[in-house]
Design a protein that fits this description.
The chain is built from 15 helices and 16 strands. By secondary structure, it is α/β, with parallel strands linked by helices. The strands form five sheets. It has a five-stranded parallel β-sheet, sandwiched between helices. Strands 6-7-8-9 form a four-stranded antiparallel β-sheet, covered by helices on one side. Strands 13-12-14 form a three-stranded mixed β-sheet. It binds adenosine monophosphate. Adenosine monophosphate is lined by residues 27, 29-30, 38-39, 41-42, 231-232, 234-235, 263, 265-266, 272-274.
Length: 474
């Protein structure tokens, strides 16, 4: 497989051995509020990517950090008169709930910053020892970006541009260079309170800077070098640049990560969806009105590096696409459960189906081109639908297509409806019973009409050996 590497700005062969461990780190959240659809995009993309790799035989260890010590958490804790731990625990739980709702279940390990303080202190010590860091008494330990020759190599920034940090800048007038960043923030003991955590260190009580937790965590689990580092494109600079500078300075080894993958933004009206701009939709609010399948398809039908502009129109269009898939799956189930004698003999040309499977894999092998792979699914629907309406697909072929869709859905997670139904409305139950009667009388057209009617009402029938099963669709 080939992946676009931000570091080289080229697609490169992954060259990893199947069956051997592949290490992937993706920057996690700062749990101070509910996660929004922008977060969802990045995490759905990497979830599908990991599932694809695992499905292709790679043993992926997928690590994600949780930035559970941060200015924003402290601020939120103070406002709510809660401890920092209460805030971070609450929103970490909400995040995990959201990820569960979205079917994001591929992460091997979530590692909290506050549970890796000794590892963080050890890295700061080594950076000081090697001359890459300096202390500003009473303020903190800073990384001197002028000491790292290749600072700016990832974001392709010159030394001057490197001074032009855009997020979570560590302000101090005593810094050697404007772009220097805090590794350890010293805090007077008076600052330590319920909302504001500090830890002892060789330089005094304090807390870690933003970038150091990631390298401390990845060094602990992967060592100084690993395979793939991912995150949203906003993190490329200064965050990922700083990570590289820290770890490569400590270890003397190049590169921190062989591949750097950056996902595009979810925008709204052309602007990045974000908390600070106030233009966000919380994942939980979205899921109150829509199925998680809508989001997974919406995110994956665009290439992961391209931006997606969120709109109601896009949601509607995506729902219609899902309805097409549902209808197709419904018809396949129906065909599979038909009595043998009612079927005409017909063979789907083997090559046509095999070709779809191979196009699908080829698309994903090329920098995880999910829109191309999804186009293969719709092409299959287009080609098979006329055969289904002529009742001209054998049971075997139907089963093969369903098996193929199930394989794809291990990666995508939007093809098959998964919700459990607690209560099926009476009206729906009646339609189901009526359809069964039509089927017993071999009135297939009438049965099919009712299946469509149920689908229009949001219920998909799956015919199984133990009888028909209903699933709620989008
Ligand atoms: P944050 O908590 O803001 O550091 O974000 C956590 C992850 O979500 C990072 O990888 C961000 O790049 C990503 N992210 C945040 N907002 C968006 C967005 N609007 N579109 C895509 N990814 C985003």
């Amino acid at each position: 497989m080939r992946i676009y590497n931000t570091l080289t700005r080229k697609k490169e062969a992954l060259k990893a051995e199947r069956g051997k461990k592949l290490s992937l780190f993706v920057c996690g959240i700062t749990p101070y509020d509910f996660a929004h659809l922008g977060h969802a995009r990045t995490y759905v993309v990497f979830d599908a990517f990991v599932k694809y790799l695992r499905n292709s035989g790679y043993k992926v260890f997928y690590l994600q950090n949780v930035t559970d010590v941060d200015d924003k958490i402290i601020k939120r804790a103070k406002e709510g008169k809660q401890t920092w731990k209460t805030v971070s625990t609450r929103f970490e739980k909400e995040y995990l709930k959201d990820m569960g709702g979205l079917g994001v279940n591929s992460v091997s390990k979530y590692a909290r910053a506050t549970e890796n303080i000794p590892e963080i202190i050890s890295q700061v010590k080594r950076l000081l020892h090697k001359g890459y860091a300096y202390e500003i008494p009473g303020d903190g330990i800073y990384y001197d970006i002028s000491k790292f020759q290749s600072y700016g190599k990832l974001a392709r920034r010159t030394k001057e541009q490197s001074d032009d940090a855009v997020s979570r800048i560590d302000e101090s007038i005593q810094k050697r260079n404007k772009g220097d960043f805090a590794l350890w923030k010293l805090e007077p003991s008076a600052k330590t309170d319920f909302a504001h955590p500090t830890w002892p260190s060789p330089w005094g009580r304090g807390r870690p800077g933003w970038h150091i937790e990631d390298t401390a965590i990845t060094e602990k689990y992967f060592g100084p070098q690993y395979d793939i580092h991912g995150g949203g494109r906003d993190l490329m600079f200064p965050h990922h640049e700083a990570e590289t500078a820290q770890m490569e300075a400590i270890s003397g080894k190049k590169l921190l990560a062989r591949f750097w993958m950056h996902s595009g933004f979810l925008t709204i009206g052309g602007e990045k969806m974000s908390k600070s701009l106030g233009n966000f939709i919380a994942i939980q609010d979205f899921l109150k009105n829509h199925s998680p399948r809508v989001l997974r398809l919406l995110f994956l039908k665009t290439h992961y590096r391209s931006p997606i502009d969120y709109s109601e129109k896009l949601i509607l269009q995506t729902k219609q696409e899902l309805e097409r898939i549902d209808e197709f799956v419904g018809k396949l189930h129906e065909t599979r459960s038909m009595k043998r004698e009612t079927k005409k003999r017909f063979k789907l040309q083997a090559s046509r189906f095999t070709l779809h499977a191979s196009y699908f894999m080829k698309a994903l092998e090329d920098d995880f081109n999910t829109p191309k792979a999804i186009a293969v699914v719709f092409d299959l629907i287009r080609k098979v639908n006329p055969l289904l309406s002529r009742n001209a697909l054998s049971r075997k072929e139907t089963k093969e297509i369903l098996a193929f869709l199930h394989e794809m859905d291990k990666i995508f997670g939007f093809i098959f409806a998964k919700q459990k139904i607690s209560a099926v409305p009476n009206e729906i139950k009646k339609l189901l019973v009526q359809r069964e009667q039509y089927r017993e009388q071999k009135l297939w057209n009438k049965a099919d009409e009712l299946r469509k009617k149920l689908l229009a009402k949001g219920w998909l029938i799956e015919d199984t050996p133990s009888g028909p099963k209903l699933k709620k669709t989008v």
